[in-house]
Design brief:
By secondary structure, the protein is mainly α. It has seven helices and no strands. Helix 1 (about 15-30) packs antiparallel against helix 2, helix 3 (about 65-85) runs parallel beside helix 5 and helix 4 (about 95-105) packs antiparallel against helix 5 (about 110-125).
Length: about 180
């Protein structure tokens, strides 16, 4: 399905490339081959970005169903790359999550935007290199706005994270005396 030297799909096999790459990324993650997982997912992002470049140049209101689907696939591939980066504690995940968040919002996909917002909150809370409790709080509050009122579990998890932000602020204040 894929030329292993270039990462590009073999001729006539383009439609299966994403699925095969997804399995390869999952295998790399399971084997804790993080560099391979990032490399493969980055190839997927690059491929999907190329597929939507002309679509993104047009107003979203003019997109047809196929174009919307391709943008959704692209946003999802960005989110998956950011997940791997966050798992590796790489600050680069912030830019990738932010791009995916913007695309999900453009599509009107609250669930995808909410997942990105929540993970941005987590990045700003957990990654020492970019720790910013105000930004973590802002992203968790944005997550709450995006969650449906009947998503009690999601809302409870988000409120728990906001409690963690407050506790961390308390710890900072204690340390500062």
């Amino acid at each position: 399905f894929v030329d292993l030297t270039t990462g590009r799909p073999l001729p006539g096999r383009e439609s299966n490339r994403s699925l095969v790459t997804q399995y390869r990324v999952q295998a790399a993650e399971q084997d804790r081959r993080w560099e391979d997982a990032v490399r493969l997912q980055s190839l997927s992002v690059k491929w999907n970005r190329g597929r939507v470049s002309t679509t993104l140049a047009k107003p979203a209101a003019t997109w047809d169903q196929v174009e919307r689907y391709n943008v959704e696939v692209f946003a999802t591939s960005l989110h998956e790359l950011a997940q791997i980066q966050l798992g590796q504690r790489l600050a680069a995940c912030v830019d990738v999550y932010t791009e995916a968040f913007s695309l999900f919002e453009l599509l009107g996909y609250r669930r995808g935007a909410g997942a990105c917002a929540s993970n941005l909150g987590r990045a700003f809370l957990d990654l020492d290199s970019i720790r910013d409790l105000s930004l973590a709080e802002r992203w968790y509050l944005r997550t709450l706005e995006l969650l449906s009122a009947d998503d009690r579990m999601g809302r409870a998890q988000c409120l728990m994270q906001l409690g963690s932000v407050a506790f961390n602020r308390f710890q900072v204040a204690l340390d500062a005396n």
